[in-house]
Amino acid sequence: MEASILVIQLLNGLQLGILLFLLSAGLTLTFGIMDFVNLAHGALYMLGAFFCATLTIYTGSFLLAVAVAIPLTALAGYILERLVVQHLYHRDHLDHVLATFGLILCIDTLVHLIWGPEGIAIPLPEILNTQVEIFPGIVFPTFRLLIIGMGLTAAAGLYLLVNHTRVGMLIRAGASNRRMVGALGVDISTLFSGVFALGAALAGLAGMLIAPITEASIGMGSDIIITTFVVIIIGGIGSMKGAFLAALIIGLIDTFGRSFLDDIFKIFMSGEAAETAAPAVSAMLIYILMAVILAFRPQGLFPPLTR
Amino acid sequence: MPEATIGKQHTAVKWISIVMITALAVIPFGLYLAGNAFWLDIFTRLVILAIAACGLNLILGLGGLVSFGHAAYIGLGAYAVGIPVYHSTYGGMDAIASYNGFVHLGLAMAVCALFALVTGIISLRTRGVNFIMITMAFGQMMFYAIVSLETYGGDDGLTIDLRSEFPLITLDNPVTLYIVCYLSLLALVFLLHRISHSRFGLILQGAKFNEERMGAIGVNCYRYQLTAFVLSGLICGYAGFLLGNFTTFISPEMMDWTRSGEIMFMVILGGAAALWGPVIGAVIFIVLEFVLSEITIYWHLYFGLLLIFSVLFMRGGVSGALSRWFNSSRSSGTQRQA
Amino acid sequence: MSHPILEVQQLNKSFGGVIATDNVDMRVTQGEIHALIGPNGAGKTTLISQLSGLLTPDSGEIIFQGKTITGLPAYEFCRAGLARSFQITSVFQEMSLLDNVAMAVQARSGHSFKFWKNAKKEKLLREPALQYLEQVGLAERCNWLASEVSHGERRQLEIAMALATEPQMLLLDEPMAGMGREESAQLISTLNGLKKDKTLLLVEHDMDAVFALADTITVLVYGRVVASGEPDSIRNNEQVRQAYLGEDDN
């Protein structure tokens, strides 16, 4: 019994971690390569969810909807980059923060305008809306397994792209030396737009994967973006490897904190005190972890070498 | 002559100050006496937001540190009023019933100082993006902490039906409250004016321009920045304390990071470089919120667009534009050449 | 022989496999002008940065006036009496020259937790600041913004700021870089004037200036000290000629 809960929570934590990685990967790319802080990254996550919701309702197929919504979100990212973001690269971080905060307000309101104030649930196809017996006696929702699978696939694809392709080489070179990439005769502004769109697609994918569980809603991006920041702060800003590991750590710790902390607290305090303290501490757990890690390593666990 | 460049702004700043001081004193009372009590509420909110924006500007404008978690202090200040009030209404802590103002204010200051100190110690070891994100995360941590306090309403918030009482002053009366807020703002702006020209202020500005240089002349900037960070938190906590006395309802939502963004919006839109910039920003914010929300429920769209446009096209905010306008409208004879 | 004011023992620093400082030993005697020369990329600025606390060496010791100061933050180096000027001019561009130097005066005159008094009207800060500006010949321009004066004048300002921290020893990183003949001559006379009560460690490319000023010269090539001694012995040192001076002569 205990063991089965443990396994299930482990998988839940893994699933959250994977989603956080998809989000933090995009931020890491835009920060690492363009030195750009994008608060509106969460808005792209939300857009992905809404695109997917509408498409699922129209096409009747969730998977088809995802396949169409990913390029759509990338396109949205591309347009944002061309319209606003591009003009901010040479500005300081304060300007990045303010302008992308403005973008959040705009996108949130536009979503409100188009889709209305209510959240939209995404119906899952029958095949996915089941449970699988992964170990004898331990069942786990098929869809959550799919999230883990798709997330890991995306992570692997990203790894291959960055480490084994020409584009990836440019990306890596761009992260360590912007001018050099320019000197290689690469059209920097196209590369930047492409990277931004890629980040948007990854964030959008995360939104599409979570929406069938939580539903697509306004504000979903603003909530998750801070957790994503915690991930990349802990991982070391600009480091893809750091983002991946920190995302898994945060996913697991957050999930375990919420499910087991009151039991742990009950070991050394009264039941009532534990019931009060546990939710507060578990809500703050990842931030406390961040504080502790930063106290010892101000640059995070795996700061990129080039900075 | 020694302050030639700052001197250029003097006329602009002086006029803006006089206009602001008079307007904030005359308009709400005029309207109140004319029987329009509603406006006093709007102005009280405005002045409280202006105090918070000035608080943020101490670290942002003077220190150049982009702290994105300042809504947390406002929330903590408000809850420092709300939680004791909750207890005195529902019993449990009778000792704090009379002259509860000292309890409220004391609690607000103590909690904010502690929170600013602890988070400042950690976040000030980093710079740039790291600092922005870390202050944001710590702010959000407080948001979640308050959300998880079921006793005090959690997500649903807390009703405040009691006001802080001091000897001779009771904040129960809206006019008294406004006077207190107004005088607090004046005192604060004057204080910030003094600080910006003091040794402490010079160190902060030096660190903003060139921190490496400050180290090379033997200054440990960290201590000063941490002090400014705590001071800034205290000021926002004070604004929160006033807000707790102003509204009848507080909720964690007021601590959300997007609220921090709004305060930052005020500072930048008004102009971080100018003493009255944040106050101007608060005025614009309230006016926009009020006017736009009358016209459309989608007013946040215009808000966002304005923010983007002001970042892209208007350097130094409204006060920057104003002082440029003042300078150009004055004769070009002030051009200095030696 | 007088005792060393600064002693560097087996200092090492590398950046991701590139060795910038290779087992450097160095002694600077009290009251001398010590020049550090070497071809481009010899690691002079890296060494100066370690000697001013901006970079932390991987290993080795920096002993200043008998006190080990290795690994301390930059501001502690300055407080110990070791001030530096920067190769790429690093002053407060938005402030007047007087404000720049007054900042440095303020830095050494106690803590700055003073929130009320207008520091720009404090005689205690302004008067000494003006004197330091006078010392480098900038008193007339004291109210100009640092961004408005010439490059050479900014270099002078750098030195005035370093002097204002009242150091026993000054580290000057290429003070003459980008200066015209006249400005260089002026600076050389300023530095000669400092000689009586300050020790100077000077990184410089201008060989005329080096041989005109220096009492001792240390030659750095690829992060390693290849020679150290009086100007004449350096001039005649075969190794140095090969590694460095030879290239310049042709």
Write a concise keyword list for the protein shown above.
heterotrimer; A: 307 residues; mainly alpha; ABC transporter involved in vitamin B12 uptake, BtuC; two-stranded antiparallel ribbon; 77% helix; globular; C: 250 residues; alpha/beta; 6-stranded mixed sheet; 4-stranded antiparallel sheet; 9 helices; 10 strands; 25% strand
Write the layout of secondary structure elements.
The complex is a heterotrimer of chains A (307), B (338) and C (250).
Chain A: H1 2-34, H2 41-59, H3 62-83, H4 93-115, E1 131-135, E2 138-141, H5 142-164, H6 166-176, H7 178-183, H8 188-214, H9 220-235, H10 240-268, H11 271-296
Antiparallel strand pairs in A: 1-2
Helix pairs in contact in A: 1-5, 1-6, 1-8, 1-9, 1-10, 2-3, 2-4, 2-8, 2-9, 3-8, 5-6, 9-10, 9-11, 10-11
Chain B: H1 4-33, H2 37-62, H3 71-90, H4 100-123, H5 128-147, E1 158-159, H6 174-197, H7 199-209, H8 211-216, H9 221-246, E2 249-250, H10 257-270, H11 277-295, H12 299-313, H13 317-329
Antiparallel strand pairs in B: 1-2
Chain C: E1 4-15, E2 18-29, E3 33-37, H1 44-51, E4 59-64, E5 67-68, H2 74-80, E6 82-85, H3 97-108, H4 123-135, H5 151-164, E7 169-173, H6 181-194, E8 199-203, H7 207-213, E9 216-221, E10 224-229, H8 231-235, H9 238-249
What would you say this structure looks like, in words?
The complex is a heterotrimer of chains A (307), B (338) and C (250). Chain A has helices at residues 2-34, 41-59, 62-83, 93-115, 142-164, 166-176, 178-183, 188-214, 220-235, 240-268, 271-296, and strands spanning 131-135, 138-141. Chain A contains 11 helices and 2 strands. In chain A, 77% of the residues lie in helices and 3% in strands. The N and C termini of chain A lie far apart (48 Å). Chain B has helices at 4-33, 37-62, 71-90, 100-123, 128-147, 174-197, 199-209, 211-216, 221-246, 257-270, 277-295, 299-313, 317-329, and strands spanning 158-159, 249-250. Helix content of chain C is 37%, strand content 25%. In chain C, a hairpin with a 2-residue loop joins strand 4 and strand 5. Chain C is an alpha/beta fold and 250 residues long. In chain C, the strands form 2 sheets. Chain C has a 6-stranded mixed sheet, sandwiched between helices. A 4-stranded antiparallel sheet of chain C has the order 2-1-4-5, with helices on one face. Chain C has helices spanning 44-51, 74-80, 97-108, 123-135, 151-164, 181-194, 207-213, 231-235, 238-249, and strands at 4-15, 18-29, 33-37, 59-64, 67-68, 82-85, 169-173, 199-203, 216-221, 224-229. Chain C folds into 2 domains: 1-81 and 167-250, P-loop containing nucleotide triphosphate hydrolases (Rossmann fold), CATH 3.40.50.300; 92-166, no CATH class. The chains are: A mainly alpha (307), B mainly alpha (338), C alpha/beta (250). Chains in contact: A-B, B-C. At the A-B interface, helix 4, helix 9 and helix 11 of A face helix 4, helix 5, helix 10 and helix 12 of B.
